[in-house]
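Revision sheet: structure tokens.
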Amino acid sequence: MIQRAQEIQHQLVAWRREFHMYPELGFQETRTAARVAEVLTELGYRVRTGVGRTGVVAERGEGPPIVAVRADMDALPIQEENDVPYASQVPGVMHACGHDAHTAILLGVAKLLADETLPGTVRLLFQPSEEMEDEEGISGARRMIQDGAMEGVEAVLALHVDSTAPAGKIVLETGPSSAGVDTFYATIFGRGGHGASPHKTVDPIYIAGHVILGLHGIVSRRLDPMEPAVVTIGAIHGGQADNVIPDRAELKGTIRYMKPEVQKQIHAEVERALQIARTLGGDYDLRIVIGYPPMLNDAGVVELLQRVTVDLLGEEYLHPPHPGMGAEDFGFFSQLALGAMFGLGCKIEGDERVAHNPRFDIDERCLPVGAAVLAESVLRLMRRR
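Predicted:
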């Protein structure tokens, strides 16, 4: 399988660069989806478009087991700074997280499996909008699930390029692979007035300073230090003039966690921190929006992926994981079937390009490795059943 994947590396690179040149934001991936559907149709897959708004689902084979493989297609609102022939042609939009590579790799999986006699059904999920949610707060994974993308699926796989690991290395572990994420929106109410007479006001900015200290103390002072968690304030807005105390201040932030009980505790502690506003004479409003769940890798699927990696590439290609608190909506898929996501090393030697950065790029030698590991794993999952 690895040899066959390396034979189509030029095609994988061409697909990846095409998607990179014409990036599209979440739920706007019409050009990408059309190109994906075109390739899949040519390969003989049964193709359904418009799944989860702009997603594509393709199948090959018959009957159970159904094994799904997912790739996300959306880009980010970032202006690319790379001086390369395949740089983004869309102002202010860039594939800065590797979803162009994910899409190309899954097309590679489709090509590798097109000539196989499958003991079951492979279902390819080309997902829109992993990076953002729609006006109802729903991401692409949940929209695809609503449209039946996971019906009958017994196992689901995915990968994500990893710019911290050497090209082609497989980063994988059992258990939490990415964090759950929620967002909080808080408004602190005071009583505005002249900046020269603060004693006649209830200053929401002063109150916000104490609230911020309370929020920043949640992880360090309220949670078990052995439990991974993050509370980050990403935006503060209050006032317009230097000599006017406003009547309100607004905070927005992110919550990250690995366990449901930690999520529940953080929510309670955020509420407790906001209550400082009332102690200091003001008031508050708090809204917490539930986001992506933690992504948990199934032990049996992880073991199979590790065995595939060793058989195809050698044990030295298994790279030790580095835990982090990034979030991924693949967790919605893996809640419904046995699943796992692995990291695919894509580091450019001597010039690490971090994700969500205007200079993000990958070592394209990782592409056939990802396609081969996924394709072989699909076959073995089917045969195991």
